[in-house]
Design goal:
Its EC number is 2.4.99.12. It catalyses: lipid IVA (E. coli) + CMP-3-deoxy-beta-D-manno-octulosonate = alpha-Kdo-(2->6)-lipid IVA (E. coli) + CMP + H(+). Involved in lipopolysaccharide (LPS) biosynthesis. Catalyzes the transfer of 3-deoxy-D-manno-octulosonate (Kdo) residue(s) from CMP-Kdo to lipid IV(A), the tetraacyldisaccharide-1,4'-bisphosphate precursor of lipid A. The chain is α/β, with parallel strands linked by helices and 422 residues long. It is built from 18 helices and 14 strands. β1, α3 (60-76) and β2 (81-86) form a beta-alpha-beta unit. α3 packs across α18. The radius of gyration is 22 Å and the shape is globular.
Length: 422
């Protein structure tokens, strides 16, 4: 089955490369560093001698989540370099924002999952360990790591019931891949049980490393400057929104007569920034954009502020009064609500949070989050909280306490990784 899978990759490769160029129309980063995706790394400045640790974080969320663990690895192994790989240019850009000033951190794209490309990658860098973030299990990556005696750890692991069912349809691929893991550090007991069903041999519950992410002081300062631009109005941030959600949120906004509330939308994917701006204008709503607003105070008639920048999520959360975390109004699984909680902001989530089920439910039980049924209900709850300073501030404190009390996953994960590093 793995042979068929590998052949499928080779036959699909022309279409895969064409897709890079098509996506590159809106995201030029997809047209950069293509040689790395094919297993050639002449542009990565590695001397071939310094011991190297490898962390793979596919995109933005995984890269931000990896920050505490990468900091811990660099501190524990001061003579090592660390290679951070990605699959998306936005993940790579986030890694550069976080670690661009750290000379021991190198970056590249992970090669496509063929045995030859992954083998060439491993021969080039000879990593002492492979650390995969969250859900990134590739059959040939696992097989080649076994071949080259590279221990593999899946950390901050999460696996939904839906993903487990899909993986079990191809047991000779994914069960074999899971069996090759040296250890798994799962976010929750539910995740751990599902990973065990997939066949991973050494599974531990360590919690989510995302709880250990500290809001950077620079981002909090930017948030304060943004807040000053917004003036006296209350601010609802709709962050990490996905295709289809902005339409629902904007249409619901039109149904409420509250010009005293500023809606801040931060789409999940940067290639959609212009599309979302067009949606706002098409509804006759006055718009300001982060990329062009400068530092001037927003005009009173601006109804929507578009957060069209990368790497500033903590600033956006810091600048708002209330946060809705997207990917949850539609059945997309939701996104990380910990960042909003960490800066003490009350959180709203939609009905679909299966990718972060435990975190969402725990935040709700703790009183730091509320689940809304739809976009109209989102605005009903937002207006209620924005009009009640006492209730909103109390909820924000509960959200922050929820984020703080679940820390420690990085330390527990490091205790599993260090025995594996040669």
């Amino acid at each position: 089955m793995r042979l068929i899978y590998s052949l499928a990759w080779w036959f699909a490769l022309p279409l895969v490369l064409l897709r890079l160029f098509v996506r590159g129309r809106k995201e030029p980063g997809y047209r950069l560093h293509i040689a790395e995706r094919l297993g050639f790394y002449g542009g990565v400045r590695y001397d071939g001698k310094t011991p190297l640790l490898w962390v793979h974080a596919v995109s933005v969320g995984e890269t931000r989540a990896a920050q505490p663990l990468i900091d811990a690895l660099l501190a524990a192994y001061p003579t090592h370099q660390l290679l951070l790989t990605h699959m998306t240019p936005t993940g790579r850009a986030t890694g550069k924002d976080l670690f661009g000033k750290q000379p021991r951190v190198l970056q590249s794209f992970l090669p496509y999952d063929t045995g030859w490309m992954v083998g060439r990658f491993l021969r080039t860098f000879q990593p002492r360990i492979c650390v995969l973030m969250e859900t990134e299990v590739w059959p040939n990556v696992m097989a080649q790591c076994v071949r080259y005696d590279v221990p593999v750890a899946l950390v901050n692991a999460r696996l939904s019931e839906r993903s487990l069912k899909k993986a079990l349809k191809f047991p000779s691929l994914f069960v074999e891949a899971a069996a090759a893991m040296s250890c798994v550090a799962a976010q929750t007991e539910s995740d751990a049980q599902r990973v065990k069903q997939l066949g991973a041999p050494d599974v531990h519950v360590t919690g989510s490393i995302k709880f250990d992410v500290t809001p950077p002081a620079e981002m909090l300062q930017r948030g304060a400057l943004l807040r000053a631009q917004f003036g006296q109005r209350k601010v609802l941030a709709c962050a990490n929104t996905r295709d289809g959600e902005e339409t629902l949120i904007l249409d619901a906004l039109l149904a409420v007569n509250r010009p005293d509330i500023l809606l801040m939308i931060v789409p999940r994917h940067p290639q959609r920034f212009d599309d979302v701006a067009q949606m706002v204008r098409a509804r006759g709503l006055s718009l300001a954009r982060r990329s062009t607003a400068g530092s001037a105070t927003l005009d009173a008639d601006v109804r929507v502020f578009l957060g069209d920048s990368m790497g500033e999520m903590f600033a956006y959360y810091s600048a708002c009064d209330l946060a809705f975390v997207g990917g949850s109004l539609l059945p997309l699984g939701g996104h990380n609500l910990i960042e909003a909680s960490a800066v003490g902001k009350p959180v709203l989530v939609g009905p679909h949070t299966f990718n972060f089920a435990d975190a969402a439910e725990n935040a709700i039980v703790a009183g730091g989050a509320i689940r809304v049924a739809n976009a109209a209900n989102l605005w009903q709850q937002a207006i209620r909280l924005l009009d009640d300073d006492t209730a909103r501030h109390a909820m924000g404190l509960k959200a922050q306490h929820f984020a703080q009390q679940h820390g420690g996953a990085t330390r527990r994960t490091m205790s599993l990784l260090m025995p594996l590093i040669k």
